[in-house]
Amino acid sequence: MRLIVQPIAGGFDLCARLGLIFVSAAAPGFFGGGQIVHAVLDGSPSARAGIEPRDIIISVDGRSWDSVRHLTFSDRRQSEIAAETFIARYFTFAKIAVCVPPEPYRPLDDIAQEAAAVIAARPVLDTTPYRNPRNDDIRELLESLHRRRRRA
Predict the structure, then answer these.
(1) E strands within 70-134?
(2) Which sign, positive or negative, has the C-alpha torsion 68, 30, 86, 62?
(3) CB-hemisphere CA count at 13 Å for 14?
(4) Residues 44-78: pLDDT tens digits?
(5) pTM (predicted TM-score)
(6) Superfamily of domain covering 6-151
(7) DSSP E strands: which ranges in the chain?
(8) Residue ranges per domain, the chain?
(9) In degrees to the nearest 10, what's the CA dihedral of 12, 104, 54, 88?
(10) pLDDT score for 3
């Protein structure tokens, strides 16, 4: 069994085993060619692991996306992969453990249909800039202090 990423309509890639839809183009800049997650399918191993849209998966088990097709999984027992991920909502990097069952979590045809429905509903990549939430907290604190100084 192999982790297969296949192209689908609209310029996206589907990894049915993990339940992820990626933007086909690699992430720009310092992410080293990681893959941007466009959507996470319900009930998938990635959804259970906590991966969310806009996260960027940089490598799997220490291997870049160029060599991801060489990963293999057991046909008899659950496998675990470590996905080096930029977690957009926390603006940080982390290794996320994803448990991959020996069989697909749903029939592959159902996964492909759900992926097509997700892309039909959201055919365009979310281009909202990534923001560091820690900077937002500091900005609010500085604005609060600035308002206090004005009153004094």
Answers:
(1) 79-87, 92-100
(2) positive
(3) 20
(4) 999 999 999 999 998 888 888 766 666 677 778 89
(5) 0.79
(6) PDZ domain (2.30.42.10)
(7) 6-8, 12-15, 20-26, 35-40, 56-60, 63-64, 79-87, 92-100
(8) 6-151
(9) -150
(10) 65
